[in-house]
Amino acid sequence: MLSSDQRRTQLKKLLNSKRCLRALEAHSPISALLAQHASFDLAPGKSVGYDAIWSSSLTDSTHKGLPDIEILSASNRLLNVQEIFEVCSLPMIFDGDTGGKPEHFALHIRALERAGVSAVVIEDKRGLKKNSLLGNDVVQHQDSIEEFSEKIRAGRASLRTDDFMIVARCESLILDQGMDDALQRCLAYVAAGAHGIMIHSRKKDGQEIIEFARLFRQVHPDVPLICVPTSYAHLKFEELENAGFNVVIYANHMLRSAYLAMKDVAEDILRNGRTLEVEPRCLGIDDILRLIPGTV
Questions:
Q1: How far is it, in rounded angstroms, from Cα 197 to Cα 56?
Q2: Domain map of the chain by residue range?
Q3: Residue 117 pLDDT > 70
Q4: Which Gene3D superfamilies does the record match to this protein (predicted)?
Q5: Contacts of 232 (CB under 8 A, 6+ apart)
Q6: pLDDT at residue 135 is higher than 60
Q7: Please, which residues have CB within 8 angstroms of residue 244's CB and are 6 or more apart in sequence?
Q8: How, if at all, do strands 196-199 and 225-227 pair?
């Protein structure tokens, strides 16, 4: 098992050695273990897998039956992080929601850093958190550039190592504030000390995300740039890589797929009065025994 120091350093090393990383959401130890074991052979001698895992506040809260309104703090989620680290050696990018007050964010940073998390992403919103993909269908307030920059500076000042990364997530495109506002904010966040930028969009064609990357790269060719293609799901990893992104996060698919499978199985057992019909959709007991180290 990796130490916290060994684990925390992995993400920066990967960013320095690979053009673009794949990260998959993991809300539990078993989902993290599956992410680590997943691989696909693209061609003879060339396989792909996931480089990192994403600890999502949406899936963490949903997994506990709670609303996605920042009800779980970083401290509340640390036990789950530690349980994931017991079985998975992939580096973790942590969804920090708004980060809370600057003073609270600084304390959360230290706890995440000690635990071995590699990066935290905080979004530039204030007030009661609402899921970004709701956009302007609900009331959401964007933080001022100066106040959010101050939060970034507070986080940077609290760091104890050079390994941990603070990533600023910009919500301007989500809230229909326009490309100029998104660029202005992201450049200010980098100036304030953000190690990287996550740009979010709910436009299904994905074109504004590609355009943002082009414009941002003209100013910052080397600052890590992250995207979350939940809305523009048709864009392939290679297209996002070629656009200039360094990390592509598949942010909620493990929980969403698990929920759908469990719902169907539960209903089919009732429908058929037995489990015979659902057995082909269930992992075999032998497979479970082989999946978990130390079971056999």
A1: 17
A2: 4-251, 254-296
A3: yes
A4: Phosphoenolpyruvate-binding domains (3.20.20.60)
A5: 201, 203, 204, 205, 206, 209
A6: no
A7: 213, 214, 216, 217, 225
A8: parallel
Model confidence pLDDT, tens digit, residues 6-27:
999 999 999 999 999 999 999 9
Q: Give the whole-angstrom CA distance, residue 176 versus residue 197.
A: 18
Enzyme catalytic residues: 68
Of 31-35, 140-144, 263-267, 285-289, give the lowest mean pLDDT range. 285-289
Question: Which residue stretches of the chain are H helix?
Answer: 4-8, 10-17, 29-37, 57-63, 74-87, 102-115, 145-158, 179-192, 207-219, 237-243, 253-272, 285-291
- The b/e string for 233-264 (b: 16+ C-beta within 10 A; e otherwise) is eebeeeebbebbbbbbbbbbebbeebeeeeee
Collapsed DSSP state (helix, strand, coil) of residue 55: strand
Residues paired with residue 55 on neighbouring β-strands, in sequence order: 94
pTM of the model: 0.94
Q: What does the pLDDT look like over 241-262, one tens digit per residue?
A: 999 999 999 999 999 999 999 9
Strands 141-142 and 125-126: antiparallel
